[in-house]
């Protein structure tokens, strides 16, 4: 599944794609990833659902203009506008990492309705961020000027660390590629520099107001966001459940794809076939 469509919004170009037929499902990626990690799942789900993929502004195939904010608030505004462009009234939303905070803000602050929400190893509540994040936030301009080969090595090592089982070379290449050209290198550090936990604090204050079904799925070996955060998130959302997947780190899509697809299939409504 390729992102062949473009949505022009506030000077940004948002890449998106759609496949299949049936109830609407929207897949949201996180940082420093792109929709590429959801593509096999979109293809598998397309038999029974209309599946929508998108790259957030500043990520993947979407535009990466330096003057455009890429924080949680800007991404939620973009997501709400994109859902309006698609004409979706109550989609099922499945979000990973940063996409969790974006989808939560879109629902809780901007009032966009969903049919359901699945949160997979998400950034959603504070505290968050790693020592690497803090270093980048303190030195964004210095890192912008790194030689390209050093920058690529940093990105490869960083993304590789999100997997518990290890990534195949072709999968790692696909995740790293958007960050290695002239626009991608500064965009990689810019999205970290603009990371602002105040949006997560606002999400946390509003979580008790969620009025749609929510499921949380987490890799038991996630070293980026520990399961203690998942447990606390479950306690903040009324009526939700938490499923821990053994053998999976932060990138469950690659560590335990069958388990993740089983979670998605049992969560989404049963297909209506003739």
TrEMBL record:
Record flagged with keyword Lipoprotein: no
Domain AB hydrolase-1, chain residue ranges per copy: 25-257
Residue spans crossing the bilayer: none
Signal peptide annotation: none
GO molecular function: hydrolase activity
UniProt entry keywords in alphabetical sequence: Hydrolase
UniProt keyword annotation of Transferase present: no
Coiled coil: none
Listed PANTHER family: HYDROLASE ALPHA/BETA FOLD FAMILY (PTHR43194), PIMELOYL-[ACYL-CARRIER PROTEIN] METHYL ESTER ESTERASE (PTHR43194:SF5)
The protein, known as: Alpha/beta fold hydrolase
Originating species: Actinomadura yumaensis
């Amino acid at each position: 599944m390729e992102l062949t469509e473009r949505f022009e919004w506030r000077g940004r170009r948002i890449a998106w794609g759609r496949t299949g037929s049936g109830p609407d499902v929207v897949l949201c990626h996180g940082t420093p990833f792109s929709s590429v990690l959801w593509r096999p799942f979109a293809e598998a789900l397309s038999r029974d659902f209309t599946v929508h993929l998108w790259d957030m502004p500043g990520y993947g195939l979407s535009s990466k203009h330096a003057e455009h904010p890429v924080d949680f608030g800007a991404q939620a505004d973009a997501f709400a506008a994109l859902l309006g462009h698609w004409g979706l009234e109550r989609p099922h939303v499945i979000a990973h990492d940063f996409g969790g905070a974006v989808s939560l803000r879109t629902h809780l602050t901007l009032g966009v309705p969903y049919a359901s929400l699945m949160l997979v190893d998400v950034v959603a509540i504070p505290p968050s961020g790693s020592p690497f994040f803090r270093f980048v936030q303190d030195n964004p301009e210095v890192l912008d000027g790194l030689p390209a080969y050093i920058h690529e090595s940093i990105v490869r090592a960083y993304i590789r660390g999100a997997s518990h089982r290890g990534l195949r070379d072709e999968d790692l290449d696909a995740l790293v590629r958007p960050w290695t050209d002239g626009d991608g290198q500064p965009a990689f550090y810019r999205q970290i520099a603009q990371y602002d936990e105040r949006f997560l604090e606002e999400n946390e204050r509003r979580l008790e107001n969620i009025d749609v079904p929510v499921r949380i799925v987490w890799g038991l070996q996630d070293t980026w966001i520990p399961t203690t955060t998942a447990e606390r998130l479950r306690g903040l959302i009324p009526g939700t459940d938490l499923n821990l997947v053994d053998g999976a780190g932060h990138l469950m899509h690659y560590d335990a794809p069958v388990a993740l697809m089983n979670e998605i299939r049992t969560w989404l409504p049963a297909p209506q076939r003739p």
